[in-house]
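R.M. (postdoc): so does anyone remember the format we settled on? I'll just put the structure tokens first.
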């Protein structure tokens, strides 16, 4: 099935799928994969420029206190059955 708008390749990032036009030979498929890699890298560079270079430092989080294991399981002098 031909791709819309006479495209040779389409990339669907949500499902990480590269759709290639059926008329491509091995060299054409390789060229399309290289074009996709170039476009992906260009997009990543554009996204990384919007990331701050020195983000504000966050204070460390405080640990959540959990109850001791003995208080959760109850008394330990009950008989134990092994199956």
């Amino acid at each position: 099935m031909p791709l819309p708008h006479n495209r040779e390749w389409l990339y669907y990032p949500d499902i990480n799928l590269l759709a290639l036009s059926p008329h491509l030979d091995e060299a054409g498929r390789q060229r399309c994969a290289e074009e996709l890699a170039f476009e992906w890298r260009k997009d990543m560079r554009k996204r990384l420029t919007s990331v701050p270079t020195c983000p504000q430092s966050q204070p460390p989080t405080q640990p959540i206190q959990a109850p001791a294991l003995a208080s959760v399981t109850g008394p330990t002098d009950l008989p134990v059955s092994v199956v």
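R.M.: ...and that's the designed sequence above, right after the tokens. Also worth knowing: The chain has two helices and two strands. The helical segments are 26-49, 69-73.
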